[in-house]
């Protein structure tokens, strides 16, 4: 992982959120969904039902 993979989350209403990206480098679009689980993140991130969605993990400790 590169230390400074800056990212921008841009909503269709024009709001911007700046942060860091893990994983894919490039531009993408998709529906944002949230997962509040504290375990099972491997299954969540490989679950085909999340296809074309941007998964946001809400638990502060993953792994």
TrEMBL record:
SUPFAM superfamilies: Carbamoyl phosphate synthetase, small subunit N-terminal domain
All copies of domain Carbamoyl-phosphate synthase small subunit N-terminal, residue ranges: 5-63
Gene3D superfamilies: Carbamoyl-phosphate synthase small subunit, N-terminal domain
InterPro entries assigned: CarbamoylP_synth_ssu_N (IPR002474), CarbP_synth_ssu_N_sf (IPR036480)
A Pfam family per the record: CPSase_sm_chain
Protein name from the UniProt record: Carbamoyl-phosphate synthase small subunit N-terminal domain-containing protein
